[in-house]
Amino acid sequence: MESIESPAFVPTQRSTVKRLAKRAEYDRTTVYQILDEGLICHVGFVVDGNPFVIPTAYGRIEEQLYIHGSPASRMLRTLQTGIDVCVTVTLLDGLVLARSAFHHSMNYRSVVVFGTASIVSEPEQKLEALRAFTEHIVPGRWSEVRPPNRSELTGTLVLALPLVEASAKVRTGPPVDDEEDYALPVWAGELPLELATAQPIADPRLSSAIEPPAYVTAYTRAATRQA
Amino acid sequence: MESIESPAFVPTQRSTVKRLAKRAEYDRTTVYQILDEGLICHVGFVVDGNPFVIPTAYGRIEEQLYIHGSPASRMLRTLQTGIDVCVTVTLLDGLVLARSAFHHSMNYRSVVVFGTASIVSEPEQKLEALRAFTEHIVPGRWSEVRPPNRSELTGTLVLALPLVEASAKVRTGPPVDDEEDYALPVWAGELPLELATAQPIADPRLSSAIEPPAYVTAYTRAATRQA
């Protein structure tokens, strides 16, 4: 899974997966695929000793994870002071139904990133981050929409979190029951889950002459991008 | 939205939604519906000043949120000492495509709960919590599977977080563009997203005589439960 161009993450004390270490993965390909498939991350930070966990969208360019928002946001105002942050992305792949209550589980892929976020102030890099942000959510969208103007750029705070200290955790496959429970007459197996789209809903103010583009009608998350 | 039986949450300093306060909701019905539809929460806690955000399953009985796991879990070992915790559940309902990059958004429903988790040690309450846990993920499952035995009960740490300090945040509807952008010839609207199931995959060791039950083949998250 590793290559010279893409060395694996080196587990640190806090990024080492402690529980069920057999599910841990530290190679960049796995971590990037999970980050690129996800749409929302959960950002954890500490204010006056209290933990906060806030969901937000994100983007990635190579070894940087970007989050953005209003300069007035409590989360972004806090993070820009350079405090430690933990960003987690979780993809739920299925429910795992065992024959015993105890062995029920879920199939999932998650990434946890630790680090310190810093402000992106260089305009060119900021614009690139916003492009990555939009393209992460809807690949193909950026070139069709009006790009940010000067006041929108100023009014957006972009933070970068270097992807240095990260780990993935992955569970796949059927349930694992106690040997004596396999004889129980109970259905057991996996119920796969996936993020599906429904019919696009046109903005009420949209001209009926404008059809939704293919990147909307054929939208899918799985394997949309490569690391 | 409120009733005498179910008073709204009283916003505290940390549970008050600061950004886009118009999206904030504090009534229990909204908060409980989001918690009951979600499958995974993200638990935030602080160890040696570092924030951790860990995805995990959960259950709810009335005004208690339950999480569980191995007594060896770093997360649960830390939480049982009674530190502050922040638990966030996020449901992603759709992508909001505006005519400008700046106004792209997502439709979502999220809940953030603050509080202190405590150990559930009373066996009767612990078993009830585990039942709620399984029924939360797959309603109808508990009565069909082998219940936890004494050693499994002992080997499971259950924590309760009282639902006292909580808030919800909800975005719905079409994009909101700048007035001058509505004339742009760009498709705009919502792309609804939902958690869908694929065909159940039987455990390779399952007898082919056992068919998947209706609560598996007709599985759906939306509105599975009432508060």
Descriptive notes:
2 copies of one chain form a homodimer. The first copy, chain A, is an alpha+beta fold. Chain A has one domain (21-217): Pnp Oxidase, Chain A, CATH 2.30.110.10. Chain A contains 5 helices and 12 strands. Chain A has helices at residues 28-37, 74-79, 123-137, 150-154, 214-217; strands at residues 24-25, 40-47, 50-57, 59-61, 64-69, 84-97, 105-116, 118-119, 157-162, 165-171, 189-197, 201-202. In chain A, a hairpin with a 2-residue loop joins strand 2 and strand 3 (50-57). The longest helix of chain A has 15 residues, at 123-137. Chain A is globular and about 65 Å long. Chains A and B meet through strand 2, strand 3, strand 6, strand 7 and helix 3 of A and strand 2, strand 3, strand 6, strand 7 and helix 3 of B. Strand 11 of chain A pairs antiparallel with strand 11 (189-197) of chain B, so a sheet runs across the interface.
Gyration radius of chain A, in Å: 20 Å
Q: CATH topology of chain A, what is it called?
A: Pnp Oxidase, Chain A
Secondary-structure element pattern of chain A, one letter each: EHEEEEHEEEHHEEEEH
The CATH H-level superfamily of chain A is: Electron Transport, Fmn-binding Protein, Chain A
The proportion of residues forming helix of chain A, as a percent range, comes to 10-25%
Strand % of chain A is 25-35%
Biggest interchain interface, per-side counts = A-B, 93 and 93 residues
Q: Which structural category do the helix and sheet elements of chain A fall into?
A: alpha+beta
Query: What's the main sheet of chain A like?
Result: 7 strands, antiparallel
Report the CATH architecture of chain A. Roll
Quaternary form: homodimer
